[in-house]
């Protein structure tokens, strides 16, 4: 990701295009360079998926047990609750992943700011407090909330078929 230099925050890699980014990274750092930051992405997806599926089923069942609604209304309510859970659990991983992806690297492809996933979490927590891991939670929810609701709604409908 990158932005105009007038509004840029932190290091910008300044790739001209996605294919240019792949080519540049591969030439400078080899295949391993294309996987830099994966240590933040894998736990993000694992935690987010676990929170999404566990909270969806529980919330949907809870709504149905209280007879507040059934069918698609319970599915949507479960999806909304799940969207909040996903945003809360994934936000720290999004912050860490973004910082790992966007940090400048040396000639060997080693990050200049963080030694890895755990070091990034520790630095953020010590310098910015635990709430530093939740920077941008509103944007995270606006992206993941609707996605979660729609994904789970369609998943539930497909399961019925």
Would you summarize the structure shown here?
With 161 residues, the protein is an all-alpha fold.
Category from helices, strands and their pairing: mainly alpha
- pLDDT averaged residue by residue: 85
User: Shape, please?
Assistant: elongated
Main beta sheet strand tally, sense and closure: none
Overall number of structural domains:
1
Beta-strand residue percentage: under 5%
Query: Counting H and I runs of at least 4 residues, what is the number of helices?
Result: 5
Note poorly predicted spans.
Answer: none
The helicity comes to: over 70%
In total, how many beta strands?
A: 0
Q: What is the ordering of alpha helices and beta strands?
A: HHHHH
Distance between the termini: 40 Å
Supply Rg: 19 Å
Describe the model.
With 161 residues, this protein is mainly α. It has one domain. It is built from five helices and no strands. It has helices spanning 18-34, 38-65, 71-102, 117-128, 137-160. Helix 2 runs antiparallel to helix 3 and helix 3 crosses helix 5 (137-160). It is elongated.
List the helices and strands and how they pair.
Elements: H1 18-34, H2 38-65, H3 71-102, H4 117-128, H5 137-160
Membrane topology: Multi-pass membrane protein
GO cellular component, one term: mitochondrial inner membrane
Subcellular location: Mitochondrion inner membrane
């Amino acid at each position: 990701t990158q932005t105009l230099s007038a509004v840029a925050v932190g290091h910008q890699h300044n790739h001209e295009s996605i294919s240019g980014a792949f080519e540049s990274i591969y030439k400078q750092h080899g295949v391993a360079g294309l996987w830099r930051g994966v240590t933040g992405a894998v736990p993000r997806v694992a935690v987010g998926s676990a929170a999404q599926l566990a909270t969806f089923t529980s919330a949907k069942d809870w709504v149905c047990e209280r007879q507040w609604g059934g069918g698609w209304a319970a599915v949507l309510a479960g999806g909304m609750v799940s969207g909040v859970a996903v945003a809360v659990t994934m936000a720290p991983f999004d912050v860490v992943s973004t910082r790992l992806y966007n940090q400048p690297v040396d000639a060997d492809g080693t990050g200049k700011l963080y030694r890895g996933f755990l070091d990034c979490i520790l630095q953020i927590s010590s310098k910015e407090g635990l709430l530093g891991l939740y920077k941008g939670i509103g944007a995270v929810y606006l992206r993941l909330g609707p996605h979660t609701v729609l994904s789970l709604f369609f998943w539930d409908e497909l399961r019925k078929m």
